[in-house]
Amino acid sequence: MFSDKFFMAVSDKTFDELTPKKRIAYNKRLNKCISKDPNNPSYTKLGKFASGTFMNKYYSLGKNGARDLRNIRIQYSKDLNEYKNNHQLSLQEVYNINGRKKKDYIKLTSSEYSEIEKEFKIAHKRAAEKELNKKLDVILAMNNSMNTLSKADYFLRSNSNISSKVDYRVKGEIQNKLNQKKETVLKVLLDEERADYNNNVSLQSDPLAFKNYIKQKEQKYNNYANSTSVRAFMDNLGEYRYNYLIKHKDNFISEVEATKNKNEIKIVEEKYLYGTDRRDTKLFFNLIKNQEARLALLKKQAEELQKQKEAEELRAMMSETTETGEPTSLQMLWALQYQVSLKNRKFEKNDKNTEYNETDNILSMIVKLQNNVNKGARLKITYFKKFSCSKSNKPGFICDYAIDRKVSGGILENDFYKTLLNNSEDNDYADIETSRFSKVGDIWKLVEKL
Predict the structure, then answer these.
(1) What is the C-alpha separation between 10 and 56, in angstroms, rounded?
(2) Which of 336, 335, 333, 343 shows the shortest CA–CA distance to 412?
(3) pLDDT per position as a tens digit, 138-174
(4) What's the CA gap between 59 and 10, in Å, rounded?
(5) Which of 211, 201, 269, 220 has the alpha carbon at shortest distance from 241?
(6) What is the C-alpha separation between 428 and 156, in angstroms, rounded?
(7) In terms of pTM, does the model score above 0.70?
(8) 35-61: buried (b, 16+ CB within 10 Å) or exposed (e) per residue?
């Protein structure tokens, strides 16, 4: 028989390294140790499957490894029994057993380890369900407040480390209980809101207070819009709005009819119709629509009258004559202002073409650079004086005049950039220019700058 020293020395070698004679002696000694465990008679042949395996897997606990292994088996049986039969295990108790499973039971056979792993998952799910229901009872016992609603909303998410361990059936049952609790809380809160509204006289007379009340309640219960109680309450808010409008109908109509533009209409609409269902208040929105149409018509008529007036003034001005037939000072100024308006129209068009993109070539980038320099720039004539005119060989008259044009807006309005770009159209002195003016139809125009 081999000594304990030899017996323990084998732990650092594989079973296959032993000679046949030593292998038989080793098995006898091993079986003798293990057979002392009366609770596990089926494992007395443990040494036979150790072939080809490092023995330190079974005897890493020291000189008395076999005895320790037997103790592990005894604890294993107890833990397995706890998992299977004790349905009152807490999560912490389950985790404690799992700690031993990872530390000691890994030394057992794969079938044993698989069995306790399977029972661990079952016990873990059961304990998690118990713990989750315990926490749920706290929520269900809370008073009827917005805080309770918030906690019910985030219950599963705030306990995700536990809820992730239970199956969908259990989570569904818990969610149903939470929904019932939320519905109960909402019903109580909304009954209080209705009573508060009915007792608040100022809400029924002050448009701004009423609007703020509606907005506040919609924001407060927005997250619970799918609730039956909230939908019913929101319907009540719709009734409050409608009844309020009926009560203040005359004020509403007079304020709408007094509006002079769309901005004023918007103010009245916000004041009375904030969040109102158009189906229930069709009459009131029709009044606004009709007023918008009336104002648009009045604006169009005013624009047409202004155009007619300007056309009459232009015809009258262009019909004026001089003894020589040359253009008057006003006719020349109008022709010059027309040129400025054309340039300003070009500036407005170019303002929309300033964004660079990947498809730009060098020429288009230069154009956009120039547009950015001129962006927002507008020309205007600040000074004009006619000097003299003479008959031209071509149609019209050649006239000399003094003119000063100023740039407003854009980068050119900055004095530094004016100097840098040598902008001839914006300086401190009037320019003396010569141009040919000719009558095109009934209108005097600048046809050539000399």
Answers:
(1) 8
(2) 343
(3) 888 888 887 887 788 777 777 777 777 777 888 888 8
(4) 10
(5) 211
(6) 76
(7) no
(8) eebeebeebbebbeebeeeebeebbeb
